[in-house]
Amino acid sequence: MALPKALQNRDFRSTRVGMISERIIVVLLGLCALITVLITIGIIYMLVTQSAGFFRSDFVSLRGFLTDKEWTALQSQDLAKAQFGILPLLSGTLRVTLIAMLIALPLGLITAIYLSEFASSKIRSWLKPTLEVIAGVPTVVLGYFAILVISPSLQWASGGAFSTFNATSAGIAVGILCLPMVCSLSEDAMRAVPRSLREGAYGLGCTPFETSVKVVVPAALSGIVSAFLLAFSRAIGETMVVALAAGTLPTLTADPTRQAQTMTGFIVEMIKSESEYGTVQYFSLYAVAVSLFLITFAMTLLGQIVRRRFQESYQ
Amino acid sequence: MSTLPKALSEQDADFQQSNASRRQRMSVWFYGLCVAIALISVVVLVVLLVSIWVQGQSRLTADLLMNSHSELDIERSGMWPAIIGSLFVCGVCALVALPLGVGTAVFLEEFKPKAKPLRWLHGFVQLNIANLAGVPSIVYGLLGLTVFVYMFNIFGQIKVNESSGWELMGANHKYQVLSLETGNVVFVPQTDPDQRQITIDQPVQGMDAAGDPIEIEVWQPGTPKPTDPAVRRRTVRSGAIGATVTEKSWYYFRLPLDKSFLAGGLTLALVILPIIIIASQESLRGVSPSLREASMGLGATTWQTVRDVSLPAALPGIMTGSILAMGRAIGEAAPILVVLGAAVAKNAGPQNLMDNAVTMPVLIYNWAGRQQDEFKELAAAAIIVLLVILLLLNSAAIIIRHKVQQSQS
């Protein structure tokens, strides 16, 4: 009996070479993944070693850093008189972030409700790309928009109560920046809520308003909260908008009409001043960056936990 | 006797009626609110684009595209070096981030380990990437500054106008000496890298400005000067002092990277790496498992399956995600500002691997922060150019997505 044609041609390649190259490739791909871990380790190592240079200095104490009410790293020429208290920078960041959240959270959530519950597919096909375009606008452009349009209109509307650079205009611009993010993440969460819940609500006689606010939003709450947290962390880390529009004076106040240097704004200002490597001012960059990193890291982690732990799954 | 439920016994029909219509009204109001708020985002985008167009349209000239930044001739300032700089920085960024990102995504999606500790590690890497995506870009900038620009000062500190660190290739040090012919110099090769000056008192082998080897003669002051220009050109006064000049080839490379576009590109790669990984993972996850199973069933190894089945199927999604990530990279200013510094006065694109560069967002930031109205208008015009470039990129992504949807249906 003749062998099948495929077997007659006995040109089998050894599988050993294949096995070895397979191994090599797995190791290479694993190295790629390892690099992402190395980046995290690198960030933490850098922040720890470099900010140690800051806290080791005679002019700085950890207590003063956390409680002093003035930050004059750039303003004072004399190092002995410089004050390194993070509170003014933190207050600037919080003011800008709070205003941004006042804009982004309600607007983003309601737009998301509209998109997932009410909008026809035609309106969706217009509104979604609009939001994507806003999300794709570089932050430096929004910063420019803040000083070109938002700040003058605020001054005009308030009769000059706002200073040229102020926390509000920066906050509004950051809010615009975060809006698409809040919207798309919340919408994803709401779309994941099964149809049967909505149909149940309508069957019990709920109006569309009651269905979306009392049924769909609570059901998607974990996703919405994690979207809020991510937006919050994004707003805290936002740099170019505040560098352009929030001013360069660290102030410890709750007044949104005044200048507000944020943590990120200070880092940019410090880089622009080109201070010498190794000075206390230079290392103060890293001390500020540590605070920034810790806050955003906590927010992101919390967002992850909320999403995973409290996610309701419907089968 | 059966009693009515409480809700029905207490409230009369009129009340029910008014309650229902109140709820209906409420719902209509809410719908109106939704539409109004959804419109806000459209209005914001329109206002943004129109105001920038109005501000910058008068500066959209050939000068803007061809010239470089100038403090003196503001009217004719342009952004050509910034466009080239962005191209270089983003090119490096893409070359590094794309293979790394796709590789990581393939590893995470296609090579899921079975052993428990490895599974734990897998989950850790996954969580780590989600966290990296949340790190502010300016922190990546500082990471780039420490790791790429200064390299923790392991290779010595970079000083201005002094070659330092470890020069690995492309640098050609030589001493520059004035010859007797006015305005003409000769060069003597440098042998000892630490010696920054030489004094010439006897004839040596050297080269002329074109790089051709010549014999350098020495003229003792007091003796008659040679008159032949060819001889004068290769004759130096005895005791003439030569200082080091460095000629850098395009592949000039040294450690640490200093404020070079290479360092900028690497830093940007760190910023967009998580975005690319997450997009590629989503895309790979979307490939139907039956395709993989069919490939495995035919006897392909995992890598063969990935190479010939999963990756081609996921490629459109990966490309869309990568293009969007590149759009982010082009518009990113903060990390570049930290790594390359805020200086924008540069006449051309990078000349060698270690050369500094200006990018478009940094230039826009610089112009936007100035007092003069001319610069503000220039900033708006530069923003228009940047937005047009981003628009082109995004439409490429949309076209790819569209093509794929058509071919799949």
TrEMBL record, chain A:
Keywords: Cell membrane, Membrane, Phosphate transport, Transmembrane, Transmembrane helix, Transport. It is found in: Cell membrane. The keyword Cell inner membrane does not apply. This is Phosphate transport system permease protein. It is a multi-pass membrane protein. Pfam families: BPD_transp_1. The gene is pstC. Coiled coil: none annotated. The lineage of its organism: Bacteria, Pseudomonadati, Planctomycetota, Planctomycetia, Pirellulales. GO terms for cellular component: plasma membrane.
TrEMBL record, chain B:
It is found in: Cell membrane. One of its GO terms (cellular component) is plasma membrane. Keywords: Membrane, Transmembrane, Transmembrane helix, Transport. The keyword Cell inner membrane does not apply. The keyword Ligase does not apply. The chain crosses the membrane at residues 28-54, 82-108, 129-152, 260-279, 378-400. GO terms for biological process: transmembrane transport. Residues 83-396 form the ABC transmembrane type-1 domain. It comes from the Bacteria. It holds the Pfam family BPD_transp_1. InterPro entries: MetI-like, MetI-like_sf. It is a multi-pass membrane protein. Belongs to the binding-protein-dependent transport system permease family. This is ABC transporter permease subunit.
